[in-house]
TrEMBL record:
Pathway: Lipid metabolism; butanoate metabolism. Keywords: NAD, Oxidoreductase. One of its GO terms (biological process) is fatty acid metabolic process. Belongs to the 3-hydroxyacyl-CoA dehydrogenase family. It comes from Streptomyces radicis. It holds the Pfam family 3HCDH_N. Residues 4-180 form the 3-hydroxyacyl-CoA dehydrogenase NAD binding domain. This is 3-hydroxybutyryl-CoA dehydrogenase. NAD(+) binds at G8, A9, G10, V11, M12, G13, D31, E89, K94, S116, N140, K271. Residues 183-279 form the 3-hydroxyacyl-CoA dehydrogenase C-terminal domain.
Length: 281
């Protein structure tokens, strides 16, 4: 596969387009916002020019930006062989989008759902190709993370799994296959950890800096749970915890009220300049 559709030009979609083009793939990058597409194109061009200083490892860094077609029209997905969807972690948005993708993309095209928590089988049911829908939970930032959580839905075929693992390998990634469940492996554990860390701050047990120091200095984690939440985006964290709470109907997934208030206040983390920590623009 050489022509890949990437739907959603946010941080994840931009990072994915960057990684794919760095390894020679052509990308059709779709977003409803022209501004988001312009920002994505600028980021890819910057990486093309300064990738050697930013840790680029792909063999085809030269000409990366020329291998990206930016568009606001889903009809431009008619030529892609594989598609990765990266829009906001909202079931209502995904529910509305997938019938449109199903109509726009070729019948043989595989749909990879880049989601933190929404069940893959639930998404696949919105298409006429349930055997060709799979979960690919990329980690942020995509260019720096070599491993992807690959989720098999109820109807996902072995051919789809094989094609997905082959494509991942073709741009320097490896996949760990798991079965479908809300949150999969990574976020059933991670979201509980982050949510509990937020409760520690809300309850006055420790300041954010000290919560994270316990994890980085005592456990050797590269990043503490609250800095991780800021990196992912507190809005995305809240969406993910809400999905777990809704699907499992278990009180242990109840979002911390402080998390909800911070999202209501627009304190999303790195992308807004302020979350549990402050970031330079």
């Amino acid at each position: 596969m050489t022509r890949v559709g990437v739907v959603g030009a946010g941080v994840m979609g931009t990072g994915l387009a960057q990684s794919l083009t760095e390894y020679g793939h052509e990308v059709v990058l779709v977003d409803r916002s022209k501004e988001a597409l312009d920002l994505a194109q600028a980021e890819i061009l910057k990486f093309e020019r300064f990738g050697a200083l930013l840790g680029a490892t792909g063999p085809s860094r030269e000409g990366m930006s020329g291998r990206v077609t930016c568009t606001t029209d889903l009809a431009d997905l008619s030529t892609v062989e594989f598609l990765v969807e990266n829009i906001t972690e909202s079931w209502e948005l995904k529910r509305a989008l997938y019938p449109q993708l199903d109509e726009a993309a070729p019948e043989s095209c595989v749909f990879a759902v880049n989601t933190s928590a929404i069940p893959i089988t639930k998404v696949a049911a919105r298409t006429t190709r349930q055997d060709r829908v799979i979960g690919t939970h990329f980690m942020n930032p995509v260019p720096m993370k070599p491993t992807v959580e690959v989720i098999k839905g109820w109807h996902t075929s072995q051919e789809t799994i094989d094609a997905t693992l082959a494509l991942l390998g073709a741009f320097g990634k490896s996949g760990v296959q798991v079965n479908d469940s809300p949150g999969f492996v990574s976020n059933r554990v991670l979201m509980l950890t982050i949510n509990e860390a937020v409760y520690l701050v809300a309850d006055g047990v420790a300041e954010p800096e000290d919560v994270d120091r316990i994890f980085t200095e005592c456990f050797g984690h590269t990043m503490g749970p609250l800095a991780t939440a800021d990196l992912i985006g507190l809005d995305t964290i809240l969406y993910s915890i809400d999905v777990l709470y809704e699907n499992f109907n278990d009180g242990k997934y109840r979002p911390c009220p402080l998390l909800q208030r911070m999202v209501d206040a627009g304190l999303y983390g790195r992308k807004s300049g302020r979350g549990f920590f402050a970031y330079e623009a």
